[in-house]
Amino acid sequence: MLLIIFGAGASYDSSADVKSEDSNPPVHLRELLQYRPPLADQLFDNRPLFARVMADFPQCQAIVTRLRHRPSDQSVEQMLAALEGETGEHPVRRAQLLAVRFYLRQAITLCQADWKRLTQGVTNYQTLLDVSARWRSRYGHVGLVTFNYDNMLEQALGGRRPFDCNTR
Please, are residues 37 and 111 in contact by the beta-carbon 8 Å criterion? Predict the structure, then answer.
């Protein structure tokens, strides 16, 4: 059996046309980068798309600066956990963190939809699924596990079960 594990952040490099190492991408790709699926530590970046979504959830704005400018040794998940630890002494924190959840859901959904539109649905997920299906027809079962916060893998599957074919 082949087991493919998609770690958190796998969608960040989902387009072969946009490279991680591009510090100065071509002009025609720069607009795309605001829609690129973010890594966890980029979820609160000052992107136009994120700013529009954040405007819909003003309760989270009071803690965004802390999420953006946290200590270098602290992940966004650790900062959110620390903020959650403050809810006993600062009850409004609950509403702020709830707003963060709604913000994240909306920001990821819109980012993913725009990324799909701008890449015209051509992602490395389809390529990998094609290669995996070929491997399965030769050698056996393929399992997919994802730890991503988006559902780009599920979209690439398109509701089908590509590995459920009787090829032997």
Answer: yes
pLDDT band at residue 49 under the 50/70/90 scheme: very high
What residue type is 161 in one-letter code? R
- Structural domain includes residue 34: no
**Domain, as residue range, for 129:** 1-17+121-168
Helix extents (H) in 31-148: 48-56, 61-68, 76-84, 92-118, 124-139
User: pTM for the whole thing?
Assistant: 0.80
- Residues 113 and 53 grouped into a single domain: yes
Dump the DSSP string for 125-149.
HHHHHHHHHHHHHHH--EEEEE--S
pLDDT value of position 34:
79
Is the same domain home to 125 and 114?
no
CA distances to 43, 78, 93, 96, 100 from 69, rounded to whole Å, are: 12, 13, 18, 17, 16
